[in-house]
Amino acid sequence: MTKKSTRSVGNVPGFGFQILFSTDDGKPQVYRELNEVATIPNSERDYRFYKLLEKNCDLRFCRNETSRDFNFITLEHFMIFALDSHGNCFGTIGGFSNIDDREYPVGYVTSDGKCGIVASCLKEFLELANFYPYWREIIEYTREGKKYSIENLENKYDMNAKIFLDSQLEISDTLNLKKNEKSIELLLSNLHDDQFVVFNHRLENIL
Known about the structure:
- This protein has helices spanning 48-57, 122-131, 135-144, 150-156, 162-175, 183-191, and strands at 4-12, 16-23, 28-32, 35-37, 60-61, 73-74, 78-83, 89-93, 106-109, 114-119, 198-199, 204-205.
- By secondary structure, it is an alpha+beta fold.
- Helix 1 crosses helix 5 (162-175).
- Residues 1-17 have low confidence and may be disordered.
């Protein structure tokens, strides 16, 4: 994808959006809109850990959303599974994933069009969100070249409060998550992978 020079986007009846690239070497490439939404099954909607993830981690799993609710196009199959309170969304890249799968990385698309890979698999992402809920702030500080204090970020999220710690423990026990001391390092490393591309927004990598 490093040789993109021009592109055109059109709506193809029966296929959704189609993107045609003209590359530097003259070889055209065609991609089609491949966004889907994975919603919580009705039988699971009252599971307590979903509510805890929303409260502790600002991570709301999809319930009634459809692909029409997301006004962007990705080059790869993007299975959207969650949003946050700012309208940013999360999905697995390449196909549907459950928590035990290691095959599909997790992509992040912000409401203003930034995009990037934030984890190599769903479980890695949930461990990041559960134990480092301030990870979005770290992205912003890194982009702006600013210093930050983990202690201050933890205080901002009241991470030492009993109610937070109890919820964090319940989430980790329910989903079999473990704290990875390298989660933030992995996050920033993943974001330097520029292979996850979004259109219909201003194209910009998170970092």
